[in-house]
């Protein structure tokens, strides 16, 4: 790219229909703002969190069950969102728990995207028995809820991993389980787009001059199918956040030593009816805000990239 091309590319972006649609969508602006704040807060947790909630040496059981916006009666610590049963500051726990939830969600969605896009490209371009085999696998997997597939994969993987390594590998096993349960939606969408694109003249011209099929897929077809993939990835990210929280709530997600938002909700549920409502309420609010904001972005992106709605 030359020096002249760069400003032109930036100018085209700021004058594009997508950016214009974003400016005219209050839901997209609110979703992007909330998502940006939550993601930045999670990334900067080590610097902005009042305490380190995962350091056992900094916890004091005497600080447990401190209500929100009050000081512990035993120590001078002030807890903005209260503390849990272990004396752990809820604000710090939510910030650090969001880091775990976001890392798992982004990694699992990225794994699903790579697997699904690759399978869809191959199925759509090669066709024949390869296409039939890949599509039948996706059909079978789509008949089951993704959370059940993730539970099955998680259970099998945990059975393979030695007990001494299970806690340290729990996050990676969870990413593998969630990623492997959500790739069919990418594969089916990309396969349908490839079937449309490969019948066009530019693909026939590339084949005629002897361009390698892999280069045709990556250089010519893939850029033209990224629009729907981006929409599915954004909406899938919100769903993966919920799925990770569900698995952690069921006790089969990340270890208690590095709890995610789902683990914090599971802990808080135990004390909801004894009056310590804040242990459940604040992690649940953070989870809903995070998933809803990403979902609003996905809905806007779906409409903005749909040529029929322009």
Task: Please give a handful of descriptors for the protein shown.
MetI-like fold, mainly alpha, 14 helices, disordered N terminus, 310 residues
Which structural class should the secondary elements be placed in? mainly alpha
The fourth-level CATH homologous superfamily of the domain at 102-310 is: MetI-like
Largest sheet, spatial ordering of strands: 1-2
Radius of gyration from CA coordinates:
23 Å
Helix content: 55-70%
CATH architecture of the domain at 102-310: Orthogonal Bundle
Helix and strand element order: HHHHEEHHHHHHHHHH
Shape: elongated
Total count of helical runs of at least 4 residues: 14
Find the CATH topology of the domain at 102-310: MetI-like fold
Distance between the termini: 30 Å
- Uncertain stretches of 5 or more adjacent residues: 1-15
How much of the sequence lies in strands comes to under 5%
The count of strands amounts to 2
CATH class of the domain at 102-310: Mainly Alpha
* Biggest sheet statistics: 2 strands, antiparallel
* Mean pLDDT, all residues: 84
What is this entry, summarized?
This protein is 69% helix and 1% strand. The protein has 310 residues and is an all-alpha fold.
Structural overview:
- It is a single chain.
- The protein is mostly helical and 310 residues long.
- It has a domain at 102-310: MetI-like (MetI-like fold, Orthogonal Bundle).
- The chain has 14 helices and two strands, in the order H-H-H-H-E-E-H-H-H-H-H-H-H-H-H-H.
- The chain has helices at 5-14, 17-23, 26-43, 45-48, 90-126, 128-142, 146-160, 166-181, 183-197, 201-208, 213-221, 226-249, 261-269, 278-304, and strands at residues 70-71, 78-79.
- Strands 1-2 form a two-stranded antiparallel ribbon.
- Helix 5 (90-126) runs parallel beside helix 9 (183-197).
- The longest helix is centred in the middle third of the chain and has 37 residues, at 90-126.
- The chain starts with a helix and ends in a 6-residue tail after the last helix.
